[in-house]
Amino acid sequence: MEFQWYPGHMTKAKRQMQEDIKLIDLVIELVDARVPMSSRNPDIDELGKNKARLILLNKSDLADKAVTDRWKNFFEAKGYHVVSIDARNNKGMKAINNVINEACAEKIARDRARGIKNRPVRAMVVGIPNVGKSTFINSFAGRASAKTGNKPGVTKGKQWIKLNKGVELLDTPGILWPKFEDQTVGLRLAFIGSIKDDLIQRQELAMELIKVIVSNYPGALESRYNVNETGEPSEMLKQVAENRNCIAKGGDLDYEKAALLIIDDFRNGVIGHMDLEFPEDYK
Ligand code: G4P
Questions:
Q1: Binding site membership of 178 for ligand 1 (Cβ less than 6 Å)
Q2: Neighbours of 1 (CB within 10 A)
Q3: pLDDT tens for residues 161-193?
């Protein structure tokens, strides 16, 4: 399977971000906790250098808790501040304010040394599509989402959401496109739904997903679909179609439907809380 990207979008988004990043102290980078490396865009380290950095492992409700903890240690060892959250259900959000203060301690001390008091930390949310940036901003800003900085009628300039006395958030997230040569990364992004389904062949994707789940979480597919995990992925897809009554018009097995079922179940976390990549595989 080959995945293609659109450098046109990427270049424009990146240029915008280069401008926006000049205005902020802290980069809040959202990644998908199930694939924290594949859902990062490596450019962000260059774009965000000299800024305080916070990584949010989002969608932790879908991920494997023990692995998420290891990812947290992994990124912390590299100097990032890290919080795991479930933005959709407002979980883990309370910890963020404290961590922002820790992450920006240097800036706050520098301001103080210069006699600048109470200048809020300015932050910006960045990430690839679908990691939950908008959900996070809504959930984090909540009722505090009174905008500051712009007068009515003035369309130029940035909109800032005042979160509390100490923090202002740029109201539009920075979108970076995934970037990869390695097709494994493309596959992982397809599994989590960050690459649109119409770009990919569903049955093939489902069989790749079956392989990955059997290898990392043996027994999970057997207990969900009553399939024999020692068989080939194509055989397992067939068994899912049979066991779940996926029948096409004319009475044949509907492999497409079975494939969609597996993919959706995975994306909704009902096969189990699963990670698709592990910190031990990265230096
Ligand atoms: P983006 O701005 O980064 O592109 O992402 P967005 O917030 O639009 O979120 C993409 C999808 O991920 C949404 O689902 C959203 O509800 C879901 N999501 C965000 N955070 C979490 C989380 O912590 N856990 C889980 N399980 N899901 C999360 P959707 O299906 O596109 O929309 P909807 O069904 O929620 O309306």
A1: no
A2: 12
A3: 998 888 999 988 988 877 777 889 989 999 998
Going from the Cα of 98 to the center of ligand 1, the distance in angstroms, rounded, reads 24
Architecture of domain 201-282: Orthogonal Bundle (1.10)
**Residue 84 CB–ligand 1 contact under 6 Å:** no
The CB density around residue 37, as the number of other CB atoms within 10 Å, is: 19
Q: Where are the domains of the chain?
A: 8-171, 201-282
Atom of ligand 1 nearest to the CA of 128: 3
Burial class (CB in 10 A: 0-12, 13-18, 19+), 165: exposed
List of residues 6+ apart from 34 with CB closer than 8 A = 59, 62, 63, 64, 192, 274, 275, 276, 277
Instruction: Report the alpha-carbon distance of residue 13 to residue 35 in Å, rounded.
Output: 22
Instruction: Report if pTM > 0.70.
Output: yes
